[in-house]
TrEMBL record:
Listed GO biological process terms: nucleobase catabolic process
Top enzyme category: lyase
Gene3D superfamilies (UniProt xref): Indigoidine synthase domain
Highest taxon of the lineage: Bacteria
Protein EC: 4.2.1.70
Purpose: Catalyzes the reversible cleavage of pseudouridine 5'-phosphate (PsiMP) to ribose 5-phosphate and uracil. Functions biologically in the cleavage direction, as part of a pseudouridine degradation pathway.
Name by which UniProt lists this protein: Pseudouridine-5'-phosphate glycosidase
Organism of origin: Marinibacterium profundimaris
Subunit relationships: Homotrimer.
Cofactor binding: number and manner: Binds 1 Mn(2+) ion per subunit.
Keyword Metal-binding: yes
Family: Belongs to the pseudouridine-5'-phosphate glycosidase family.
Gene: psuG
Protein's UniProt keywords contain Transmembrane helix: no
């Protein structure tokens, strides 16, 4: 039914039952400027290869669900115009109408599950936006984590979000939020949100066992592994807070809503930090890819 096009590398890994790490494509089309976006996408794939796992970047191209993009496809996506930002609500419609789109965390999780991939690395998940009590702007990523059995490695929720409310919703939805190697939930560009994580694990094997245990118990949904940005690349939260507040104020004043909010805020913060936010974003994605590869290996071992 679903036409999954596996990239050559991903196809070989599937056949030989080797660990695969899924990667999203919205970060390429809507999260980072060209040409850094493609450099980063390739760099992240290389990190996963160097860890002995196989990367599979996911996107929809002309109505086909691609799991593992070939280098030329990745290049093309980096500068392609009018690429949709696909989440749970629009993935099926895009596939059904022959459209092209980049997958968000939610859509990448759905695709990963279809392809039998357990682990997915990204930068930061979507969550509850500031002011959600009036706008109701809550990312579909949270509901996806509650439904789709994929372990997502992220540097927490992006700090442009309301992190306490995001954690509340995750708790309500029964999503395990596991801080990796520290007690606090990280805040994307910064190592700590000041909030204690519901769970802490220091070992990829434990994360892998918990992933498989949820499946064995018949609990739907995945896990969020919140991996702090490396110390050397972090931007202190005190520096970012006023920048984020100003960007948010501008988004409100301009009436920016729905899917446009996150890309707008990321761009404004990039400008206000003279590009430092992008460097930090790149470093944290690389760090997440490394951990995701370790977890993918651990799940493979546990299944043998
Ligand atoms: N991680 C990043 N940059 C991004 C994203 C993740 O470092 O741009 C994307 C993901 O695709 C995530 C989306 O699903 O941002 C969240 O968008 P929204 O807040 O509109 O749900």
């Amino acid at each position: 039914m679903i036409d999954i096009v596996f990239g050559a590398e991903a196809a070989a890994a599937e056949l030989e039952d080797r660990p695969i790490v899924a990667l999203e494509s919205t970060i390429i089309t809507h999260g980072m400027p060209s040409p850094r976006n493609v450099e980063v996408a390739r760099g992240v794939e290389d990190i996963i290869r160097a860890s002995g796992a196989t990367p599979a970047t996911i996107a929809v191209i002309e109505g086909k669900l691609h799991v593992g993009l070939e280098p030329a496809e990745l290049d093309w996506l980096g500068t392609a115009k009018d690429v949709a930002k696909l989440s749970r609500a629009d993935l099926a419609a895009c596939l059904a109408t022959g459209g092209t789109g980049a997958t968000t965390v939610a859509a990448t999780m759905i695709a990963a599950r279809q392809a039998g991939i357990h682990v997915f690395a990204t930068g930061g998940i979507g969550g509850v936006h500031k002011g959600a009590e009036t706008t109701f702007d809550i990312s579909a990523d949270l509901h996806e984590l509650a439904q789709t059995p994929v372990t997502v490695v992220a540097a927490g929720a992006k700090a442009i979000l309301d992190i306490p409310k995001t954690l509340e919703v995750l708790e309500t939805l029964g999503v395990p939020v596991i801080a990796y190697g520290q007690d606090d939930v990280p805040a994307f560009w910064s190592r700590s949100s000041g909030l204690k994580a519901p769970l802490r694990m220091d070992d990829p094997d434990a994360i892998a066992r918990a992933h498989l245990m949820r499946g064995a118990l018949g609990i739907p949904g995945g896990q969020l592994v919140a991996n702090p940005i490396p110390e050397a690349d972090a931007i202190p939260a005190e520096i970012l807070a006023p920048i984020i507040a100003e960007a948010q104020g501008e988004a409100d004043a301009r009436g920016i809503t729905a899917k446009e909010v996150t890309p707008f805020l990321l761009q404004r913060i990039f400008e206000a930090t003279q590009g430092n936010s992008l460097e930090a974003n790149i470093a944290l994605v690389a760090n997440n890819a490394r951990l995701a590869a370790l977890i993918a290996h651990a799940i493979g071992r546990a299944q043998r």
